[in-house]
Amino acid sequence: xxxxxxxxxxxxxxxxxxxxxxxxxxxxxxxxxxxxxxxxxxxxxxxxxxxxxxxxxxxxxxxxxxxxxxxxxxxxxxxxxxxxxxxxxxxxxxxxxxxxxxxxxxxxxxxxxxxxxxxxxxxxxxxxxxxxxxxxxxxxxxxxxxxxxxxxxxxxxxxxxxxxxxxxxxxxxxxxxxxxxxxxxxxxxxxxxxxxxxxxxxxxxxxxxxxxxxxxxxxxxxxxxxxxxxxxxxxxxxxxxxxxxxxxxxxxxxxxxxxxxxxxxxxxxxxxxxxxxxxxxxxxxxxxxxxxxxxxxxxxxxxxxxxxxxxxxxxxxxxxxxxxxxxxxxxxxxxxxxxxxxxxxxxxxxxxxxxxxxxxxxxxxxxxxxxxxxxxxxxxxxxxxxxxxxxxxxxxxxxxxxxxxxxxxxxxxxxxxxxxxxxxxxxxxxxxxxxxxxxxxxxxxxxxxxxxxxxxxxxxxxxxxxxxxxxxxxxxxxxxxxxxxxxxxxxxxxxxxxxxxxxxxxxxxxxxxxxxxxxxxxxxxxxxxxxxxxxxxxxxxxxxxxxxxxxxxxxxxxxxxxxxxxxxxxxxxxxxxxxxxxxxxxxxxxxxxxxxxxxxxxxx
Length: 604
Ligand code: ATP
Known about the structure:
With about 600 residues, the protein is α+β, with helices and mostly antiparallel strands. The chain contains 18 helices and 27 strands.
């Protein structure tokens, strides 16, 4: 079957999400609210599975990561220290007519004819205005539609607007010019956009009864900052030592200028973030005598000689393996290494893991380019240093191994490592606005601290979005195929090929006939056996083929049918059931005793 076009495919996916109870528009009965989505019964299970798999892989299955669950609203100083209050902004442009906003970097190129005017005059109310107005006309559109928009633009807020006389406004200085691939016109209205200006993405609120500036607080735009703010408490209570990580899953809020592509860019979403704290390379070198640089592929098991590059590579590979393990093959992902000019000033490297969504742009060869699922950044010691400076509380650690190793180094090596550490600290301090003289003094104290085993840990941050991952799993699972039934009838089967680990429901339980109490009783017995261990769905309504199809669309990987053989009609088949596999549609006979271990081996 030919592949459906991207938009068509997204439409089918969105409609299936609603039909099957995966994703609903938030507040739908009131017309919805842009950028907010709810997860229905199947979506809630899917999301839970994904978060639990992440949590297990990142915390319970490791010795070196501890968990955290922090509040959404925190002290506003946290967002000053992190830079969000000053710089967490997108450049935004506005349509001066409809007031609709777009992100400056997300305007698609348009070609056509630009009509421009230098101003307008109202004979009726005796006013003139000199102001530029441009409207882009696409092929086939009549110039009068541009003139109408221009008159509306000039009339805004004038008496002509209120009285409805604006249609007779006289437009002045009309010019016409062809344009190719312009990024300056609103995609819907065609009106020339205003200049770009920053728009802070944090949602503001007030804590307490007074709506005053002193009480402003923010809904967190990421979960990471709570981890830095609680770093010392977790370190002290978890008995971890560097290198170790702190993981958190939770809601984040961003007042995105243009939420779009279904749930991909939402205003309320969830993140799964790990902050993995490591020793600075100078400390690693002092302890291990060298710093290992990673080669190609997974760098293997951590060693004391791993510096930030090996740890960064390790987490990129671990995260890709995680995605593979839940059903997103490597070829659906792109590992994008940010270019030096794209990096934040404190970041040493950042890899975005992209997924090839149906709505992703294509390169010149027609290959999907992909959109960000997760970013894995090597953030130096920026975050903890910022919180140390802004809170006045020490964020450094004491490392006995380093103190002992330092004493064994020859003086030239000590000098070289101390100098490198000094340079890095001086650079950080001056970049964040500290004057050269106090910066030099503080960096010198930091370098002396290193010699005594003290440093501020560096961090590697794998930061993933739950909702984007859910959308990737749904897009990848969606499949239409032609099947022919026993009577030779061909129909389209819609199957959600979710990996059994993430599938919202793991198994459907079907008595062959609902009016045979023995079959129903046995089917309920099987359901009761399985349901303490996994999500099951019991269904006795309709023909068995229809019940299978419903579960195919829900992405349930297995179906179990209880028939007369289960009850012993053929004695050798007593207490066996038919196990149907969703993707291959093969049916095998399995004993009820073997069912639970078999299913557990597939879903874990
Ligand atoms: P983008 O460039 O797409 O806006 P970002 O680089 O700002 O994303 P980060 O700040 O690195 O994103 O956030 C980490 C992860 O959180 C992203 O990789 C993404 O999965 C998720 N995320 C960020 N913003 C949104 C959003 N508006 N809706 C859904 N998920 C989001």
